[in-house]
Amino acid sequence: MANLAIIEAINLALKSEMARDPNVVVLGEDIGRNGGVFRATVGLLDEFGGERVIDTPLAETLVAAMAIGLSTQGIRPVAEIQFSGFFYPCVDQIVNHATRMRNRTRGRLSCPLVIRAPNGGGIHAPEHHSESLETTFAQMPGLRVVCPSSPARAYGLLLAAIRDPDPVIFLEPTRCYRLFKQPVDDNGEALPLDECFIEREGTDITLVSWGAMMHDTRLAADQLAEEGINAEVIDVATLKPLDMDTILASVAKTGRCVIIQEAPRAGGWASEIAANLAEHGLMSLFAPVMRVSGYDTIMPLARSERVYIPDTERVLKEVRKVFEVAPKS
Amino acid sequence: MTTQTVARFEVCLTRMLDAEGQAIGALPDFAGDVEQLRKMYRLMVTTRAFDKKAVALQRTGQLGTYAACLGQEAIGTAIGFALKPEDIFVPAYREYAAQFARGVPMKNILLYWGGDERGMNYEAEPARHDFPLSVPIATHIPHAIGVAYAIKLKREPRVVLASCGDGATSKGDFYEAISSAKVWNLPIVFVVSNNQWAISMPRARQTGAQTIAQKAFAGGMPGEQVDGNDILATRFVLERAIERARAGEGPSLVEAITYRLHDHTTADDARRYRSEEEVKAAWERCPLKRFKAWLENSSYWSATDEEALQAEATAQAEQTAQEFLASPPDAPEAIFEHLYANLPKALAWQREEVRARGPVGEHG
Fold first, then answer.
1. Is B143 in CB contact (< 8 Å) with chain A?
2. Which of A67, A125, B250, B342 satisfies CB 3.0 to 4.6 Å to A129 for a cystine?
3. Nearest chain B residue (CA) to A27
């Protein structure tokens, strides 16, 4: 079992599934000879050849549209968008075609495709490279939105995304690509989509997050443990469709909840989770559900990105507010 | 300093019938197959009768907004006859004749514009593997790149034909497709039905280019014009491009010059932006009139044939309309049935709520 970083686990998943299923192809800008700007596709060209490892012209709409065309013909395309801010030209294709092809043809044609992209900031990248896009896609009916937060989950969820019969947006935690390593077994086993993962069991508060913010959430839980507070940590993983059952069951146990996201606050996915908790979990809550989020600002350039991106301190601040309202008895 | 010519391009226009239906020069082989010719004319006439009925249904509140194909029947018919069954058609939304030729029942088109997704579930081959008609301008064109790439991967001798209008050529999606098709030498024919108007904007205000055909040259592929109201020329030029693609010679673009005789859709009033004289002059170039004149001159068609066909086409359109009007809406919970291959657990309660509530609105 190899010890891998997230980016290596993604590479392994691609390699593994391309070897298993000859219909899987990868496409995108600079993904062939260059191996992708983050090296997610490194080695694939040599192993599988230029027909299945498709370097595309510099045209993001084309990348999405081509994936749609391929997917209607029994091919399983995994497209890469280099940076999150360059994803927007694909939105038209995704919302007007990929998400609705199955529905508008009543099942005659469908789009089993994956579009991967790095998501979020924290790597001192240029402008338009650090945005958090998950809410944009999570609002689209017919789509799956997956945000892995660890090497093992990146591997298992990417396999699941490629095998899924419907379009999946796979948003990878940019600043965690090489942050830590974990043993990843190349066993070809997909993890379940549409399910949250309870990463750490606890009894006092539920911390809910996904993607890169899981890192600070884990650190916050460690800090709380030292203070005698047992936090249950949930990695949402698949944002759309959302597994509220797992979150509600956890909150029923802990009575407290803080949701952590990097995306702007208003209308974010944390808001969707909080609204569901208000509708279905109010009676088990001891305190208001709090959100930790980016601000409703333009994602700042590198010098100020840490001002924007929530960190452990901001997570702990909201947790403390919860315990002020409802102290641990 | 030296300056030298590094590339030269020219745009050709092909015509075979003049406005009076007289043949100009030699005709292709298929122009000797009387049965085929009669079928082509039949499709043009039945499409026009259908189109007229659809507009009438909308005007009487029995159909939603409808985009007529009046005046553009030759292009759709030519596409329908030029494609082989195994080929894949990626249409915009005015090529009904091509869809009918490929097995889409007329009723399906009424279902679609009447607000029912089942209209895009083409069950008969070869339409079954074609794309559904597409409303957002030009966005379907780059799908042809993926479809054609898949065909090439699978080593299949098939061709993709993607159609759009003149307005679509102003969009980036069009250019991204045109620019990339030759990179992989894909078997695609791009057909631009240049009907002179994109709602209220005339062709000259879409682009400063002399022709749309020349946009092909920017992508490294052949581009040519054809008189899109001349069914013989249009079918010939399309077949030539299609077979070139099938032979591994890559993509082409055909600009078929026509005229939108109807409003953009039934929600539009073209009198606001174009003169009646212009429309009247365009009627003189009507593709049905021209083809019929040639068929008659060639003794392939008679007044008796015409009378019988007109009656049959009207009756068929009428019967289609009745079938459409008699068809009940889909079950309310059908809005969930094809959202995903398997409805996610998280949505089960929504479907249940809709099912429990039962018929509402037009379902009632």
1. yes
2. A125
3. B146
Domain B13-327: CATH class, spelled out: alpha beta
Q: Evaluate if pTM is beyond 0.80.
A: yes
- Which of B99, B113, B137, B143 to mutate to test binding with chain A, by most A CBs within 10 Å of its CB? B143
Q: How many CA atoms lie within 13 A of B309 on its CB side?
A: 20
ipTM: 0.97
B-chain CB neighbours of A71 within 8 Å are 146
- Confirm if B74 and B254 have CB atoms less than 8 A apart: no
* Chain A residue numbers touching B179 (CB-CB < 8 A): 57, 59
| Residue-level pLDDT, tens digit, chain A, 329 residues | 899 999 999 999 999 999 999 999 999 999 999 999 999 999 999 999 999 999 999 999 999 999 999 999 999 999 999 999 999 999 999 999 999 999 999 999 999 999 999 999 999 999 999 999 999 999 999 999 999 999 999 999 999 999 999 999 999 999 999 999 999 999 999 999 999 999 999 999 999 999 999 999 999 999 999 999 999 999 999 999 999 999 999 999 999 999 999 999 999 999 999 999 999 999 999 999 999 999 999 999 999 999 999 999 999 999 999 999 999 98
Contact A272, A263 (CB under 8 A): no
Domain ranges of chain B: 13-327, 329-364
pLDDT in tens, B55-81: 999 999 999 999 999 999 999 999 999
**Among candidates B121, B147, B173 on the partner chain, residue whose Cβ is nearest the Cβ of A72:** B147
- Residue A329 CB contacts under 8 Å (≥ 6 apart), including other chains: none
Q: Cis omega (within 30 of 0) on the bond before B126?
A: yes
Nearest to B121 among A54, A56, A106 (CB): A106
Q: What is the pLDDT of residues B282-320, one digit of tens each?
A: 999 999 999 999 999 999 999 999 999 999 999 999 999
Report the relative pairing of strands A182-184 and A2-4 from DSSP bridges: antiparallel
Q: How far is it, in rounded angstroms, from Cα B323 to Cα B302?
A: 31
Is B131–A165 a contact, with Cβ atoms under 8 angstroms apart?
Answer: no
Contact A144, A164 (CB under 8 A): yes
Q: Per the residue annotation, which of B260, B262, B285, B290 is the catalytic one?
A: B260
3-class DSSP string for chain A: CEEECHHHHHHHHHHHHHHHCCCEEEEECCCCCCCCCCCCCCCHHHHHCCCCEEECCCCHHHHHHHHHHHHCCCCEEEEECCCHHHCHHHHHHHHHHHCCHHHHCCCCCCCCCEEEEEECCCCCCCCCCCCCCHHHHHCCCCCEEECCCCHHHHHHHHHHHHHCCCCEEEEEEHHHCCCCCEEECCCCCCCCCCCCEEEECCCCEEEEECCCHHHHHHHHHHHHHHCCCCEEEEECCEEECCCHHHHHHHHHHHCCEEEECCCCCCCCHHHHHHHHHHHHCHHHCCCCCEEECCCCCCCCCHHHHHHHCCCHHHHHHHHHHHHHHCCCC
Mutate to test the interface with A, among B90, B140, B153 (most CBs of A within 10 A): B153
